[in-house]
């Protein structure tokens, strides 16, 4: 599908325009947003528009435009970015334009390596909002300086987030709006036990000791339609998340803070330890026999294997 330039020119992702024009260089534009629907100067359309305008000013011909929407710039695992690199290696254009360097990469390590790769392919890097042109020694110096500032900003944001999270943890507050089953998050950020949910947690632990199987317990909960605390059906993993959660015995562990909080305790330690012993019995080297697979679960498993084999035969 072709795209219209600000001047009305149509082009495709795999343009056959010549690599060198009488006016100057052939350019590829790369635009990226880190979240869907970003507006103003960060929007994909605005980034492309400003890059294209710069090409018009310099007399460069745009042959390719690559857009990555709602993709992080912390690494290079981006679909259109990888296509850009592949085209650069094939000598499809002379320079890559970005609206701002952090659209290209948020990591100094990656940015320096990527710039070196482009330089090896004799492809330049140009930023619309920063004085970057890696075809010159001064431009390469500016490139590394701005890359360092970009990575520093990301690290500082991460550090501030960790500091904020640790400050919350010191007051035994919960870091998100989804506390474990058995609790509700209060206005001040701390947790409060919700007794009906807490009783359900106790039932889970007690019943597990009897059935000694997370898959069988999950199947039993689904059969009983015990979905009042879940948005979807119970799975062995979901059951395991409850059985492994030490918060139920008051062991609060968030952002490196590990403390006993009495008001968060739902279960006696003896029950938790007994469940843990049963749950890890096959890891301890003790002789124990696994619970047999239920008939319904066995039938579903057989049906799944049979279906997969039939599909394999059809594709062969």
UniProtKB/TrEMBL annotation:
Question: Which organism encodes this protein?
Answer: Haloplanus ruber
Occurrences of domain Recombinase (ranges): 180-285
Classification via InterPro entries: DNA_bind_recomb_sf, DNA_bind_recombinase_dom, Resolv_N, Resolvase-like_N_sf, SSR_resolvase
Q: What is this protein called?
A: Recombinase family protein
User: What sequence ranges are listed for the domain Resolvase/invertase-type recombinase catalytic?
Assistant: 26-172
PANTHER family registered for this protein in UniProt: DNA RECOMBINASE-RELATED, DNA-INVERTASE FROM LAMBDOID PROPHAGE
């Amino acid at each position: 599908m072709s795209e219209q330039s600000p001047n009305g020119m149509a082009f495709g992702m795999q343009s056959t325009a010549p690599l060198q024009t009488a006016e100057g260089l052939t350019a590829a534009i790369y635009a990226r947003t880190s979240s869907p629907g970003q507006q103003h100067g960060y929007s994909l359309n605005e980034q492309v528009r400003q890059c294209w305008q710069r090409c018009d000013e310099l007399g460069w011909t745009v042959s390719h435009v690559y857009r990555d929407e709602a993709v992080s710039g912390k690494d290079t695992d981006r679909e259109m970015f990888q296509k850009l690199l592949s085209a650069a290696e094939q000598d499809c254009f002379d320079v890559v334009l970005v609206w701002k360097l952090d659209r290209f990469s948020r990591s100094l390590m990656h940015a320096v390596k990527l710039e070196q790769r482009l330089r090896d392919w004799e492809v330049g890097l140009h930023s619309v909002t920063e004085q970057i042109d890696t075809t010159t020694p001064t431009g390469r110096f500016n490139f590394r300086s701005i890359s360092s500032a970009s990575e520093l900003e990301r690290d500082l944001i991460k550090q501030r987030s960790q500091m904020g999270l640790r400050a919350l943890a010191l007051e035994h507050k919960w870091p998100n709006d989804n506390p474990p089953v058995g609790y509700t998050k209060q206005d001040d950020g701390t947790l409060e036990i919700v007794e009906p949910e807490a009783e359900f947690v106790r039932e889970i632990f007690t019943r597990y000791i009897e059935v000694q199987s997370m898959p069988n317990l999950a199947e039993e909960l689904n059969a009983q339609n015990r979905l009042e605390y879940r948005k979807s059906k119970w799975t062995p993993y979901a059951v395991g998340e409850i059985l492994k959660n030490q918060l139920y015995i008051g062991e609060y562990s968030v952002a490196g803070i590990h403390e006993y909080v009495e008001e968060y305790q739902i279960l006696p330690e003896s029950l938790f330890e007994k469940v843990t012993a049963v749950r890890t019995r096959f890891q301890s080297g003790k002789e124990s026999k696994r619970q047999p697979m239920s008939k319904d679960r066995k039938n579903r498993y057989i049906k799944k294997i049979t279906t997969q084999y039939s599909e394999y035969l059809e594709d062969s």
